[in-house]
Design a protein that fits this description.
The protein is mainly alpha-helical. It is built from 7 helices and no strands. Helix 2 crosses helix 6, helix 3 crosses helix 4 and helix 4 packs antiparallel against helix 5. The longest helix is centred in the first third of the chain and has 30 residues.
């Protein structure tokens, strides 16, 4: 019996960046599960713990936005953005973009915490940026799929 081998070719980009979260090894499978779990936990946090109090006008949310002078319009706007970001974290083609958008929202939250609330809870947005950055990086290949969908619709 003879054995035939076929040369495997890789592009420079795929050879330079091994993506563990996309591999079929047991380590890659665990990484995919951990990343997906992180996305679900963050999505639940943004939808339930962060957006919901703003959207139902919980007294603590109303007080905070009144203290900043943003009123109910600002509260509802931020609540809708957090709700949309939390849901988008669960949609494969939107995961990376949602993580980047929520990171931007957290930078704004950090600045607000420092300026209006004397840095009382300023660490929370910074802590949330770390897993969001990980998701944005690990799911970055979905950006090409999203771009193709947008171009197809245009």
């Amino acid at each position: 019996m003879s054995e035939t081998t076929v040369p495997v070719t890789q592009t420079a980009a795929s050879a330079a960046v091994p993506v563990i979260a996309e591999s079929s090894t047991p380590r890659g499978r665990r990484a995919r599960i951990a990343l997906r779990t992180l996305q679900v936990v963050l999505a639940l946090f943004y939808v339930i713990a962060s957006a919901l109090p703003k959207l139902i006008a919980h007294p603590s949310a109303v007080e905070g936005f009144d203290r900043m002078g943003w009123g109910s319009a600002g509260m509802y706007t931020i609540g809708v953005l957090e709700l949309a970001g939390g849901i988008a974290l669960l949609i494969p083609v939107l995961q990376s973009v949602a993580a980047v958008a929520l990171s931007g929202l957290m930078v704004g939250a950090f600045v607000v915490q420092l300026t209006y609330f004397d840095g009382e809870n300023a660490a929370t947005p910074l802590i949330l940026i770390v897993p969001l950055a990980l998701i944005a990086w690990a799911r970055r290949r979905h950006n090409a799929d999203l771009l193709r969908l947008v171009r197809r619709r245009a």
